[in-house]
Structure formats: C-alpha cells, structure tokens
User: What shape does this take?
Amino acid sequence: MNILITGSNGFIAKELIQKMEDRYPSWNLLKTNRQNLDVRDSTAVDRFFDTHPIDVVIHCANRGGRRTKVDGQEIIDMNFGMFANLAKHRDKYKFMIIFGSGAEFPREKGLDEFSEERFNSNKEIPREYYGFSKYLIAKAARSIDNIINMRIFNVFGVHEYGDRMVKNSIHKNLRGEPFEINQDRVMDFFSSYDLFKVVEHYINNFIALSLYKDLNLCYANKIKLSDLCQEIQKNGTPTHIIFHEEGDAPAYCGSSERLDSLNIELIGLEKSITTVYRELKERT
Assistant: This one.
C-alpha cells in the first residue's frame, strides 16, 4: 500500500503518520512537505505522480485558518491550487482524502449540528478567505467520485498547536493555572485517535463498501467550552474558569449521524482527553 501524505510537518499528518507506522509497518508512507514536494507547484506534482505509484492520497497540507493570524486573499489560491494539482491526477490513485472544515459555512452565523446535506445545499458563501477556500474545495470535490471530504470542526491531540483549546487548557491545568474562555459556546471536539480510526476504516473499506464521500468528523455528544474545562480538570488540578465575555456565542458543531452509521468503534471524547492529558503530562 503506497500512501502519499502531504503536509507531513503539520498536526493532522503527524498524528496519522505516527499511528499508521505503529499499526501498519508494511504500508509505504510517502511523507511530503514543502521541502520535498511543494504541492502548490503543478509541475512538481506532475513529476511526482509520473515517478511514484500511489494507491491513496491523504491531503493534509493546508494554509490559514488560525485565529491568531489574519489570512490574506492568497490563502484561496494556495489551498485551492494544492487541491487542484492533486485532483487532476485522480486517475492515478484509488481515492484521495481531504480535510474540510466547518468554516465552509459562515462561522459568524454558527453551526447547530449541521448535517452533510445542509453543507452541500448551502448557498451562503463564507466571507473570510480561509472559509471561502474550503467552500470552493468542498464544492469541487463533490463532483469527483474518488475524493472524500472529511469535515473537521475541531480535532485535538498531542501534536496540535500549543494555543489550541484542548492542549492549551491541559497545559494550564498542569501548571495549576485557571482556564480562560473568551465566550462560552457549544462546540465539537474530535480526537486524533478517532480521526485515525475513521481514516483507517476508509483505507481498508472504501472501494468494497462504497462509503460516504462527505463525512462530518464529530461525536453525537456536544460539549460547552466550560464543560470541556471541567472534563480536563478531572484528570488533574481543580481550578476555576475565567470568562472574558458574558453569555454564549453561537454553536459550532455538526451532525454525527453519518459517522455513527458506519459503526466504527471510536474511543470517544472523555477517554481521548484523558489519554492526551497523560501523554502531555509525561512530556512536561
């Protein structure tokens, strides 16, 4: 099994690579990044597919989407360009997995358990550049039979950025510091362990079972940020929460109905938080 993984230096790719190498040592993982394959470069991508047999592409390379940095219009060209350079070679691999985003719908309006059908019938275009790039990619992927869009709302794990909600809150708790929340809201948090389980299921079954081409990665149980902090502190030190704004912001979560129907044995939110907490504690 030859698997091309783009964006190998990023969070999602690191999580998948580590777990694939542990569980499937016979898989040949072609781990690429901007140093050895810049997927923004159409000629380089053409040359790569001409010289490497590929069974599956897992496209993790991504630009933008960080709340700590304002994205420019170039994000649209970068993200869609990378997707297009890989998609045009779709006849050379069995299928490609891309990672979409809840940002395909305008974030400021909130997402109240949005189903895949609601995303697909959505006619409201995101105003921010990152969300618009994801909107365009999802729209293009729907017309290509062997491209799967796995839609992420929030994924957490050991390798995520330190300023992300779960990892940042765990580190604060390990230091005995209070949690900080800008404004409480209901959100989806999906663990990297379960993301791997879904990707694994697709690699092993997509051709045989004709699985969904569009899939939300989220659990049935939704959680408020304040409750997430309470869940984290069960593993460590009891502390309090500082809210910077009163009230609740609009929800940001998707429907898990399709994922639930696949009957994949997932670890779940609570156990995953405990596992990440323990791993990060061992590293401090």
Observations:
- The domain at 2-158+188-221+254-266 is CATH 3.40.50.720 (Rossmann fold).
